[in-house]
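task queued by scheduler; priority normal; single chain, no ligands, no partner chains; default sampling; output format set to structure tokens
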Amino acid sequence: MGCGCVILTAIAVIFILKFVNKIKRFFKIPTVPYLEETWWGPRDKSEEDTSIQPFTVKVPDEVITDLQQRLQNARSLTPPLEGIQQQYGINTNLLKKIVDFWRNEYNWKERETFLNKFPQFTVSVQGLRIHYIHVKPEKTDGLKVLPLLMLHGWPGSVREFYEIIPLLTKPQPGRNFVFEVIAPSLPGYGFSEAAVRPGLGAVQVAVLFKNFMNRLGFEKYYIQGGDWGAVIIQHMATLFPEKILGLHSNMCFINTLMSNIKLFLFSFYPTLIVKQEHVHKVYPMSSKFAQRLLESGYMHLQATKPDTVGVALNDSPIGLAAYILEKFITWTNPAWRDLEDGGLTKKYTYTNLLDNVMIYWVTNSITTSMRLYAETLNKNQTKLGVATIPTTVPTACARFTYDISYSPTALLKEKYKNIVYEADYDAGHFPAFEEPELLAKDIYQGIEKIELFHKNSDHLN
């Protein structure tokens, strides 16, 4: 088949799919009233305390004593193969260094004080007691204060936001707004309660966080997230556009049949869908698929058997650390799998990384956190159709070269109809943790563009 035929076939397929999608969307308007009433918690509805309560991280001494004993009495680690760095998963020579640091230098009482540096609270929503950080700017004279809901993902936690929160709540020269940050732990993560019945997938979590913000008294607000946070805020923008002032995502993505067909068809002429300087981030598809396959084994486990793997990770702190920290190696930069030290101290410190591991350990929440995969990657969630419905909420996208996937703007516009700002950076999957100053600057720039979008829209109306 000649190039001309390929192009004509591609165009024909795209137009047919667009027509089919339009027909489907006409009949596929999202309705979620039954989701609003779903009760996820262990208590009866009549027993729900809807008051906002102060929260302090305070772990019983016996939990830390037990941890130290487990670290001290752990079995010997299996030596790595000769000439292998992180290609088989985290290298046990590196893991041994981290565990020695954990055992001898990491001080939980000091870190507990650090984790309590921001005001924290809990509030019950749909039966679950949700933990959250709430930081208001100290100086607001002449400034517009914008509420910003920030959502983390897996294997992260609110710990990812500790370096970026002070940057977002501090007035910036030349800007007429500053943020009030609300950063909750996802249900079943860290200090937030987990569902006691099945069905709490990403769509349902989006509903829960809309109700959470209502409970806190916010009628309209901005949303920001990466990883699962990016999925959840995408759903929030789709389902509740009247609530969302704007969306900033450090993982804007689309993964539909239409988008994947387009990616394949445009592989013959990549620059028709992606800028020349970004072609290597999308193509060749074979190598990108191989990379994704290499990094997605955990996903299949967690989407099918989270409780089984959770038993092992809940019982062994070293196993938990290995499972989590390996992601901070290859998801920050896949080239780090070829480094003896995994590159970890290039962007992080052992202390900061162990803070995140400790939040999972002391709350016994690794199993419940992984269930989000099983509750989302299934037919019941897919048939809701929320992921395929476009949103008109103004959107700012920060894309990172070493993130799990890279979606060209031409595809993103199928989902995000009003992309008002986008930027590309050479960083990885955890930008709030890895490059807080860079991400904070981008959030300011993106939401400044969204504010201008609203101003222009109001003027036209």
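post-processing summary
- The longest helix spans residues 3-27.
- The CA atoms of residues 52 and 216 lie 8 Å apart.
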